[in-house]
UniProtKB/TrEMBL annotation:
Compositional bias segments (type: Low complexity): 111-121
Species: Thermostaphylospora chromogena
Compositional bias (Basic residues): 122-137
Protein name: Uncharacterized protein
Region (Disordered): 110-137
Length: 137
């Protein structure tokens, strides 16, 4: 199978779109990071008080842990499946938005990346030669 066919097969798969969607989401969240850090810094005192209450809350949750863990695992499983679908859809949008130029560039690269063995086995046409006639004496 050619490199172009392999690339096309890969780029038309749901996991590829999910990865593209995750990457786009990560970029979006990284852009939000400076403002989120400012908010957290302004809430420093509130967060310190919450941290002091954690040991008491942890003991109370420990009693309920087995039942809550099962519920949580089921919820995480359902949410992970939904996120996968969301990221795949987001990735499809991202890929379709940027695929115009990128697809052309990828096609050019894949065509120029012909393995040396394939280039040797490709039959080449012999150059045309013209017969010259010699004058009779």
């Amino acid at each position: 199978m050619t490199l172009a066919a392999e690339v096309k097969k890969l780029t038309e798969s749901k996991p590829f779109y999910a990865v593209a969607g995750v990457g786009d989401y990560a970029v979006e969240k990284l852009r939000e990071l400076p403002s989120r850090l400012e908010k957290l810094q302004s809430r420093r005192g509130e967060l310190r008080d919450t941290a002091l209450e954690l040991p008491v809350k942890a003991r109370a949750y420990a009693v309920q842990l087995p039942d809550r863990a099962k519920e949580y695992a089921e919820a995480v499983n359902a949410r992970a499946a939904a996120l996968y679908e969301e990221f795949a859809a987001r990735g499809r949008r991202v890929v379709s938005r940027v695929s115009g130029d990128a697809a052309l560039e990828l096609e050019e690269v894949s065509e120029s990346a012909v393995p040396a063995t394939a280039a040797k086995t490709t039959p080449k046409r012999a150059p045309r030669t013209t017969k010259t006639t010699t004058a009779k004496r």
